[in-house]
Design brief:
The longest helix has 32 residues, at 228-259. It contains 14 helices and no strands. α6 (108-115) packs across α14, α7 packs across α8 (139-148) and α9 (151-173) packs antiparallel against α12 (228-259). The chain has helices at 14-23, 27-31, 35-56, 65-93, 99-106, 108-115, 118-135, 139-148, 151-173, 179-201, 205-219, 228-259, 267-270, 274-299. The termini are close together.
């Protein structure tokens, strides 16, 4: 199959469009290229969440509490019901992907960025959104930011695990373990790591637990690889992540100090600034996605012998 026809002969996946909208109303519409509808559904769903929080807190006991609660329920529930329904219905009628989807598939770099590094892109978007809402002092965003600000030691730890265990130990004995074993080992190490940090620095356990959970789920797709060659690849990837982890910290801390947007005065204090840690996360995962996409883009040959992931045979 020629790479130019790979996506054109495929139709959008109705089940994928449906479940994307279930997890985040509007996401299914974005997948289908209906960006206006995506923004509308997402806007009403997010407004309903913050509205319901206000109903249960600020307007508790207010004479209009019930009315505001009903409005929030209609907006959120309507988005959650209609978005998946419309996404699935629209995808079943489409004969090919949307124009934006077809444009991305023609650009190899964009194809790799959005279809292989989507995990890091979503993490960057998540951190960026939480960071913006936190700056505007949304209560829920402030709570989220405070509970995931300790993502950075777990990101460092998981990259160390990729190098030492997956690439080095399994590579030496040429006996790659299965996905389940890797997850069990890493989860156990995360638990030990979390308890150790809690006992030594007395950081609230909930913050450590949620940060660990976020990074663990972010890296789960990387544990599906089984061949030794891919283990070597991930050792290089983890090594780059180490360097970027250090560079990005100093970069964001430096500019945060100049513009005083985060209140960071010293690098030491930066470790305890919630806003800084969230901004750092957005910057770090975005650069990881772009860097890895570019490196793979440079190493994939174009033409009829293109990588088989894009529908052609070598």
């Amino acid at each position: 199959m020629n790479k130019d026809n790979y996506f054109k002969v495929r139709k959008p996946n109705p089940d994928l469009a449906f479940w994307l909208s279930v997890f985040f109303p509007g996401a299914g519409q974005a997948y289908l290229g209906q960006f206006l509808y995506a923004i509308i559904f997402a806007f009403f769903w997010i407004i309903s969440i913050f509205g319901m929080i206000d109903v249960l807190t600020t307007f508790k006991g207010h004479k209009y509490q019930l009315l505001y609660g009903i409005i929030a329920l209609i907006l959120g529930g309507g988005s959650w019901i209609l978005s998946p329904k419309f996404a699935k219905s629209k995808s079943q009628k489409m004969e090919t992907h949307s124009k934006i989807f077809l444009y991305i598939e023609k650009k190899l770099f964009l194809r790799i960025l959005f279809f292989e590094e989507y995990g890091n892109l979503l993490l960057a978007l998540f951190f960026f959104t939480i960071g913006i809402l936190n700056i505007f002092k949304f209560p829920l965003a402030k709570t989220f930011a405070g509970n995931i600000m300790w993502w950075w030691p777990y990101e460092f730890f998981v990259n160390l695990f990729l190098v030492i265990y997956c690439a080095f130990l399994e590579g030496i004995f040429n006996k790659p373990s299965n996905f389940k074993k890797r997850i069990i080992i890493l989860t156990s190490l995360f638990l030990i790591f979390t308890v150790s940090i809690y006992l030594i620095w007395h950081i609230p356990f909930l913050k450590l637990f949620l940060s660990a959970l976020l990074i663990l789920f972010a890296h789960i797709p990387f544990f599906f690889f089984s061949k030794y060659e891919k283990q070597i690849y991930y050792s290089y990837r983890a090594g780059r992540a180490f360097c970027l982890w250090i560079f990005s910290f100093y970069f964001v801390a430096f500019f945060g100090s100049i513009f005083e947007r985060t209140g960071v005065k010293t690098l030491g204090r930066a470790l305890f600034e919630t806003t800084f840690m969230i901004e750092w996360g957005a910057f770090y995962f975005m650069i990881i996605a772009i860097l890895e996409s570019y490196l793979r883009f440079k190493n994939i040959k174009l033409g009829v012998e293109e990588d088989s992931r894009w529908g052609t045979k070598k």
